[in-house]
Amino acid sequence: MNTNAAATDPRIAALAVEAEGLARRGQTQASARLWDQVLALAPEHAGALTFLGTLALAGGDTAQAASLLQRAVRGSPPMAMAHAQLARVYRATRDDAAALQELDRALKLEPSAYGVHFEKAAIYGQLGREKDQALAFASALQVMPAQAAMTPELQPLVARAQRMVTENQAQLGEFLDRHLAELRGSRPGRTLERFEESLDVSLGRRPLQLSQPGMFNVVGLPSIAFFDRADFAWAPAAEACTDKVRAELQDVLQQDAEGFIPYVQTRPGEPVGQFQPLDFNPDWSAYFLWRHGKRVESHIARCPETMAMLDAVPQVAVQHRAPAAFFSALKPHTRIPAHNGATNCRLTVHLPLIIPPNCGLRVGNHVRPWTPGELLIFDDTVEHAAWNDSDQLRVVLIFDIWHPLLSADERRLVQGALEGIMAYYGRDAPLGEL
Fold it and tell me: Domains of the chain by range and CATH?
């Protein structure tokens, strides 16, 4: 009987189902008898040949196993198990090259077969090919389900694999540091910074930090932590206003300090999460000029130069939500925990004004100090955190701008979508800083 006919023959299908059921129940010999019947009807049935070849291998008859499994890998349908079992025959006969070839064929049919990757790693280990072994271990760990990795019998193997992968990555990193030394020295800072992060992520030195908007994700925008202020035409004029803005801030601190309110104010029933230590705590406070898209006129009256600067930047406009602009004050020895913003349609801008030592901002894998008068522009949907470990107050002006990769039409669409979300849930819904 030809292969196609065997695949549709109801007698063969019924025998195969029954044989597989017997095997699952541990009735190996009864299953083998049914597979023999399948072979009598379809001599090249891959399932029957694989089962019987595996049984022969388990019984120590490598010649019979090889004969059956070599037929199985030529049979139909293609079976990863047939190739994997044939690889074990070759291992038993010390033909490691043929075994590796069959394991690769098995993985082409079933890439997620983590056990096959582990078998490749074992062969590479016996051959002293430690780099290839590390790669095989890495592939196994990548496709291995977490539940399988936690089983007691596999944990020693998993731990060994993880250790070897880590050691290999460290050795690769040292090699690449030497290999790239000359190239690194000839590249500009911006190019080098992005490359260094890419290399570190690839080597496991740093985690991959991606944009994770909490509410509205504009797809297709890159996950960039810090943007270079030199790429924004309005930035030099904004930075030139630093002294005037700082003077207005100092007047506010002296004359209207009560205008600073706790930045974190969780409403009853809402989860506080990592912000609990700062909830209604003036250690992190804000003096709003724009809040939820509304002007705070009494504050604006004190800060005309600051408002003139803000009027010249492409602030986000969303009814009942944006613009948002405020002086952000962080008291001594205060830390803002890591968090992600609500939407990547915008970037957050800091104009540093009062900056004591031992203060910093981390966005993704990048840590930057605040330098008075130099804008920091970043995507706040990438995990970020800030701290003031000094004994003095730290204050920056914070405002949002549209993401520069959004077209004017896209801005209008995003604005409409965000306003629609608020219309649906209500403007006071806990939607984050849209």
Answer: 3-172 (1.25.40.10), 226-425 (2.60.120.330)
